[in-house]
Amino acid sequence: MTGYSNPKILNSRDTVTSNPATGTINEKPLLPPLQPQDINKKCLVIDLDETLVHSSFKPVKNPDFVIPVEIDGVEHQVYVLKRPYVDEFLAKVGEHFECILFTASLAKYADPVADLLDKKKVFRGRLFREACVFHKGNYVKDLSRLGRQLNQTLIIDNSPASYAFHPENAVPVTTWFDDPADTELLDILPSLEHLNGFQSIYDLYRPEEGPNSELLNHCSC
Description:
This protein is α/β, with parallel strands linked by helices. Mean pLDDT is 87; it is low at 3-15. β7 (133-135) and β8 form a beta hairpin. It is 15% helix and 23% strand. The strands form three sheets. The chain has a five-stranded parallel sheet. α1 (86-96) runs parallel beside α4. The protein starts with 41 loop residues before the first strand and ends in a 25-residue tail after the last helix. It has a domain at 46-53 and 84-218: HAD superfamily/HAD-like (Rossmann fold). GO terms for molecular function: metal ion binding; RNA polymerase II CTD heptapeptide repeat phosphatase activity. Residues 37-195 form the FCP1 homology domain.
């Protein structure tokens, strides 16, 4: 998010620190059990900033939202732009996946953005900075901590560092700031539909290759 240089917003390490080589952390899952309507659906983890929206402390022309955020006792205005076709994208994936918002931003910013963005309650859960693992200077979204089967879990994110532990589960997207002609969210819908047809997302990989790179590289749709 542009302008978030304040350490209380971006740089505080209020996260789990883990060595992925030692395996997953022994703790309760980040997500509650599946809701009845989501049984047999794959879990789709979706990033927020530069994937669905772009936010800035600096005023922008025609913001979709303006969010007040308190920092050190002072209220600041955050200007939020929605990525083109985000509403259509969320409506579509909400029909076929258990959708989870997972952001490295703090809840005091991301939660009100999600309230305004997700009017139709597509997201079954929201995970914020504290749910990330701080690893080698990055906030990593460890999918093994969700409480979902990894072979039934996908992540959409513009930052490869966010899915560093599970690149084989990733459907990467380009970083978005303000391009009104962007169609990325529409463009990846056929890939998601294709992946949803597999019993396991890892079935997409060729046997001699193994699951070791981003899913979209293997999707022929």
